[in-house]
């Protein structure tokens, strides 16, 4: 999802932004968002540094909110594209099939 530099989002902010797409209210965040002790620092955020892309003429054409909406819509329309979500969400997932 494209986002201009300076508009960094934490992983928690992205998770909160996704909740309405799945019928979840942000007030239930403590019930549905789970953190794992081995990841808090590593997964706090993933900063976008687009300096080199911008030097090549790139600029974001889609806002974060619109990009998130379009991404969710694509995944919901293409459910067969992805596999076992429960396995992918496990802490320390090595990517190996169970």
In brief, what are we looking at here?
This protein is mainly alpha-helical and 98 residues long. It has five helices and no strands. The longest helix is centred in the last third of the chain and has 14 residues, at 64-77.
What does it look like?
By secondary structure, the chain is mostly helical. 36% of the residues lie in helices and 0% in strands. It is built from five helices and no strands. The protein has helices at 11-18, 29-32, 51-55, 64-77, 85-88. The protein is globular, with a radius of gyration of 16 Å. The two termini are 29 Å apart. The relative contact order is 0.17. The model has no long low-confidence stretch (mean pLDDT 77).
Low-confidence stretches: none
The 3D shape can be described as globular
Total helical elements: 5
Q: Portion of residues in helices?
A: 25-40%
- Radius of gyration equals 16 Å
Strand content: under 5%
Mean pLDDT, all residues: 77
**Number of strand elements:** 0
Alpha-beta content class? mainly alpha
N-end to C-end Cα span:
29 Å
Would you spell out the secondary-structure blueprint of this structure?
Layout: H1 11-18, H2 29-32, H3 51-55, H4 64-77, H5 85-88
List descriptors.
globular; about 0% strand; mainly alpha; single chain
